[in-house]
Design goal:
- It is a single chain.
- The protein has about 170 residues and is an alpha/beta fold.
- It has one domain (about 15-165): Rossmann fold.
- It has helices at about 30-55, 75-90, 115-130, 135-150, 160-170, and strands at about 20-25, 60-65, 95-100, 105, 135, 155-160.
- The strands form two sheets. Strands 1-2-3-6 form a four-stranded parallel beta sheet, with helices on both faces. Strands 4-5 form a two-stranded parallel ribbon.
- Helix 1 (about 30-55) runs parallel beside helix 2 and helix 4 (about 135-150) crosses helix 5.
- The longest helix is centred in the N-terminal third of the chain and has 26 residues, at about 30-55.
- The chain starts with 20 loop residues before the first strand and ends with a helix.
- GO terms for molecular function: catalytic activity.
Length: about 170
């Protein structure tokens, strides 16, 4: 495990050397980092980490994005997620898997009232429609490992919420 300064990520290129697979779940919130900080973390840091990973020999990059990611979206969150998906794909990994989960169901130490309300609502919906709009973070993690152990045949594979549920059961 290496601790890096994302503001000086290029100085930590050695931490990205010699890995066949890279997993990226980096992200923040606009409320926590502001609009510029959100873009810097969720797009710029992720894109730079992907470039360093590829230069270091990474062949398969697994990116956690978001349901609805679209580089042409009018919504900052979805636009940034779509932009970073495009940037990561352009790096040229042998294989790139993009996860687009719905609402992530998890317990957080920090208080995010609106997210908590969404989790309660989607957690209740999940009892009736388990793969519709949300996914437990443990399921995402299992699916990420499974996609590396059993990679698809496509160079770029995008997994939406339902596919994440299915792969996470494997």
């Amino acid at each position: 495990q290496a601790v890096v300064d994302f503001e000086q990520l290029g100085e930590h290129a050695a931490a990205f050397q010699g890995h066949d697979v890279g997993f990226c779940c980096l992200g923040t919130t606009r409320a926590k980092a502001g609009a510029d900080g959100f873009v810097r973390v969720d797009r710029d840091y992720v894109a730079q980490a992907a470039e360093l990973a590829r230069a270091g020999g990474c062949k398969h990059f697994v990116l956690q994005s978001s349901r609805g990611a679209n580089a042409r979206s009018h919504f900052l969150y979805l636009r940034v997620k779509g932009e970073v998906e495009n940037l990561v794909q352009a790096v040229g990994f042998d294989h790139c898997t993009i996860f687009r989960p719905g609402v992530l169901l998890c317990k957080r130490q920090e208080s995010r009232p609106m997210e908590w309300i969404a989790q309660q609502f989607f957690g209740a919906v999940a009892w009736v429609f388990p793969t519709a709009n949300s996914v437990p973070v443990e399921t995402v993690a299992r699916a990420m490992v499974a996609c590396v152990l059993q990679p698809g045949e496509k160079k770029v594979e995008v997994l939406e919420n339902r596919a994440i549920h299915e792969l996470g059961k494997a």
